[in-house]
Amino acid sequence: MSIEAEIERFRKYLTEVAKLSDNTIVSQCNAVKIFLYCCFPEKDFSPEKITVDHVRVYLTNTLRHVSNVTRKTIIVRIRSYVRFLEFNDGVKFDKILKLPMTSPVWKQAGISKYLTDSETNALLAAYDQSNPTGIRDYAIARCLKDLGLRCSEVARLSLNDFEWLEGTVTIRQTKTHSERSLPLHAVTGKTIEKYLLHSRPDTQERILFVRFKKELGQPMGTSQVRNTVRRAAIRAGIENFTGTHMLTHTAAKEMINNGVDLKMIADILGHESIETTSIYTKINFMELQDVAGIWPEVRT
DNA sequence: ATCCGGCCGGTTTCAGACGT
DNA sequence: ACGTCTGAAACCGGCCGGAT
């Protein structure tokens, strides 16, 4: 297989599956092309021949003269390519992805961190709903866990975003600058309704979740939203709690377990790339092959 | 207990430098 | 004048220490 053909394969994936912008696609393809030509000067290339040493040598020798920022960018592009190979061809490149490429721990491990059912229940039970703060924070947790929102998206939720009659909520200003409309579960809706009726202070603010103490009625920031969940996790005694993204992962896990299609989950979670979704749900990939067989397909 | 702000690492995008 | 490509910026989520 020629390197040019391989780059075309990568480009097709970036365009059709990852749906990245043209600039991103071009820059990723170029970085990978240079990398591949450097590793296989004899042009006896095929994807499965790529080894950890290729990457290591490339980073330490060829890229030794570039700035750290540039190296970081190139690493990102190579990683993107390797993940494409894993996703598209089913070839495992654990050793490459485990190289110290300054990636988040949960991604290096190749396993998403999510809560077990008992941990989820413990977390939700850790909110004292006899006081306004507990009601508010419980509603936040349900938005994260039921809707699979990022904490920044929860912090930006506005009263204007809810269509109560239709039972939907629209998420704006997301990471990918697009909008998406989600169905609002009855339980989630009731929780938010309870917060609005019995907990939320009088304020002109349209942002849903507001502060109770300092700066009463002002919007909560992303960090406050995160902190409410973190404190609940401490109360619930959940060890290894790493952050609010665990709830997002948990939402993805539950959808997978309910047989929801991967593409649909990507839409709900707001991922432009199915690849991102597959990272969130990695561990279930293995489980589900045995248990349910609802993964789209098993690659060899 | 709650909140703020600064810092960090990772990813994607884009402005402008560069070559033709 | 125009297209290509690099590297910096923008954005995001996470962590932590200190203030209230």
UniProtKB/TrEMBL annotation:
Keywords, sorted A to Z: DNA recombination, DNA-binding
Gene3D superfamilies (UniProt xref): 1.10.150.130, Intergrase catalytic core (1.10.443.10)
GO biological process, one term: DNA integration
KW Ligase (keyword) present: no
SUPFAM superfamilies listed in its UniProt record: DNA breaking-rejoining enzymes
Positions of the Core-binding (CB) domain: 1-86
GO MF entry, a single one: DNA binding
Keyword Magnesium: no
Superkingdom classification of source: Bacteria
Protein name, as recorded: Integrase/recombinase XerD
Tyr recombinase domain boundaries: 110-293
